[in-house]
Amino acid sequence: MKVAILGTGYVGLSTGVCLSDIGHDVICVDLNEAKINKLSQGISPIYEPGMQRLLTKNIDAGRLSFTTSHQEGLDHAEVVIIAVGTPQKDDGGVDLSYIEQAGKDIAVHVKQSTIVVIKSTVPVGTNEYVKRIIDEQFDGNHSIELVSNPEFLRQGSAIMDTIEADRIIIGAEKKEVAMKLQEMYRPLHVPIILTSIRSAEMIKYASNAFLATKISFINEIANLCESVGADVEDVVKGMGKDKRIGNSFLQPGIGYGGSCFPKDVKALLHTAELNGFDFSMLKETIAINDSQRRLLVAKAVNRFGNLKGRKIAMLGLSFKPETDDMREAPSITIARSLIEHGAKVTAYDPVATDNAKKIVEMDKVRFTSTISKAVKEADAIFIVTEWNEFRQMDISEIIKKMKSPIIFDGRNCLENNRIKECKTIEYYPIGRPPII
Ligand code: NAD
């Protein structure tokens, strides 16, 4: 099938390489010339496991190409997938300007009957809105059908999540249109659920809001565990074995981040408000997440009394491991708060440092190229992202470099027995008794 994808971010690019890998003829269009130049040379602009291999393989096979020309992309396509960004607006609503522009681009350039698939996360009713935009500008006689096909991949495992998705949602009004999309995805052998367009749009928000709420719930349990002397890791093990609960997204920590959960939860709340519905549970999910991000600093203030002049080494910057994405990363809130408290902050991350350097709130952070350099003479370590490199680090060697061997572990990634072997250490995990 001939497919064009508008937007080569995490979603568009992962979709592009995976659809070409199952045999489709894919052309990816992006406004960002630098990105397209890199991609055309076979270089992935994002860090994503497995991406580079599939990119090279499918370019070489002649099934995958890149362009900045919408005309070139749309001339080619029977199916056009919109995967542009849908960032948050100040009022919590969704900025649809990129989607609107993509709709206009399609209307102006399309020359044959086309199925337009909205893969970007958009509020309920947006597919109908985009159809109106296209209809207003389009003066041909061809049919243009809209399909809602929200994406559920996670950064850090985007390729595997696309190839082995739990489900694919296809929201379409016409059966033949849904069948065409089913045919496109058939080689993936993933369960497909057909719904109305509005239900498909809602499934995406309901899923993300549920997962975010699950995280905030376990974080509150962790906080209560600290008060009553229980160990949240044991609690999670015990809860997760229950099939009705499951153990995913039940890991306590310093809150969710990234480009999706924070904005999608707020967008759903905004939709509720616009419809006169008081979704109070979501307000709590957001409030708990905000305070969870401040937990490590609060613990450090409690321990030191005052952070003025203290040197804190942040290990991890990206919002989660296996990605270089800094959007809404808890590390930003933590760095800002530490600096406001007068602390000196050093930071190390295996891949996200270049992106972190572009963030204004991080301008007083000193970035280092190794863990050792970050922790040198530090009063304390904050583990912010659970990279394997931190799980596996030689703790006894690390603490030798520090001024005082104190670790605040925001992701519970160090094992208790390894901590206990280093007798001098002070260790403060989340929701578990500290080791002092
Ligand atoms: P992104 O910001 O990484 O990439 C968007 C790309 O679209 C950019 O490269 C931009 O230059 C390009 N673009 C903007 N307007 C364009 C146009 N008119 N024509 C062509 N290209 C255009 O975004 P992302 O993280 O891939 O997210 C895309 C959408 O998917 C969002 O709605 C997001 O909420 C949703 N989503 C993201 C994830 C994720 O993990 N990142 C997961 C599921 C869903």
From TrEMBL:
Pathway: Nucleotide-sugar biosynthesis; UDP-alpha-D-glucuronate biosynthesis; UDP-alpha-D-glucuronate from UDP-alpha-D-glucose: step 1/1. It catalyses: UDP-alpha-D-glucose + 2 NAD(+) + H2O = UDP-alpha-D-glucuronate + 2 NADH + 3 H(+). The keyword NAD applies. Residues 313-416 form the UDP-glucose/GDP-mannose dehydrogenase C-terminal domain. It is an enzyme of class 1 (oxidoreductase). The keyword NAD applies. Keywords: NAD, Oxidoreductase. GO terms for molecular function: oxidoreductase activity. Its EC number is 1.1.1.22. Pfam families: UDPG_MGDP_dh, UDPG_MGDP_dh_C, UDPG_MGDP_dh_N. It comes from the Bacteria. NCBIfam families: NDP-sugDHase. Belongs to the UDP-glucose/GDP-mannose dehydrogenase family. This is UDP-glucose 6-dehydrogenase.
